[in-house]
Write a structure and sequence with these properties.
Blueprint lengths: L7 E3 L5 H11 L4 E4 L13 H10 L1 E3 L12 H12 L2 E4 L7 H11 L3 E4 L10 H8 L3 E2 L3 H7 L21 H9 L5 E2 H8 L3 H13 L3 E4 L3 E4 L2
Parallel strand pairs: 1-2, 2-3, 4-5, 5-6
Antiparallel strand pairs: 7-9, 8-9
């Protein structure tokens, strides 16, 4: 999405949040992180380097004063800002009682588009996404599915309309793709093969999934589909 001029907004948390920020940075785009702490604190602490990268090419914002530490009730408040800043909210993984579903409800209340990536009925982390789709969220398999809904904001300044999907993959992404089988492949296996951290692998897997190369399967695995 960054290639089409969109700014990626998320919450700097572990997992999909960090992956979305890193994906935007890797493509040369812009990203905003909404913190659930004061701006002088980074939570989780392991994301200090990521926070620095975001500040250099985007922004970190918070409604909490300096010195505010992480507390459970801060994150729903943070999430309403995330959904409010977005034209569309994409839910990638969500368990049945996930906080992501609360964010999706907030997005609907704010008249935002809601998108969800479907998953296996046997994957507990896909049940929330599948429920959103049943309730009317748009099913997303590729970035084009999102662009169709947000076409009034779609920018072609970077002349991406005639660029093949393959040309948007960097060497690391292409190498990772080559290691994913046409049968379920675990993230642990990819980490062992490549030597990369789980955060880096998750970021690249998200990009490859949104570009239509992979799909998530049960047990947190991925399978190549083209």
């Amino acid at each position: 999405m960054s290639l089409h001029g969109f700014v990626i907004t998320s919450g700097l948390a572990l997992g999909i949040d960090a992956a979305s920020h890193r994906g935007a940075l890797a493509s040369g785009g812009f990203t905003i992180a909404v913190a659930g702490t004061g701006l002088d604190r980074v939570y989780p602490a392991r994301h200090k380097d990521l926070a620095t990268e975001i500040v250099n090419t985007g922004a970190i914002i918070s409604e909490f004063p300096p010195g505010t530490t992480a507390k459970a009730n801060h994150f729903p408040r943070r999430n309403r800002i995330i959904s409010g800043l977005c034209q569309g909210l994409l839910v990638v993984e969500a368990a049945k009682e996930s906080g992501s579903l609360i964010t999706a409800r907030m997005a609907l209340e704010q008249n935002r588009e809601v998108f969800a990536i479907p998953g296996s009925i046997h994957n507990p982390l896909a049940r929330g996404c599948n429920a959103l789709i049943r309730q009317g969220a748009k099913l997303v398999e590729t970035t084009q599915d999102i662009l169709e809904e947000l076409n009034q904001y779609y920018q072609t300044d970077k002349d991406t309309t005639n660029i093949s999907i393959e040309s948007t993959l960097d060497l690391e992404q292409q190498t990772l793709l080559n290691h994913v089988q046409f049968s379920p492949t675990s993230i642990d296996n990819l980490i062992q093969i490549t030597g990369n951290s789980v955060e880096i692998i998750s970021s690249m897997l998200l990009i490859l999934e949104l570009q239509g190369y992979l799909e998530a399967t049960a047990g947190g695995c991925y399978m190549r589909i083209k």
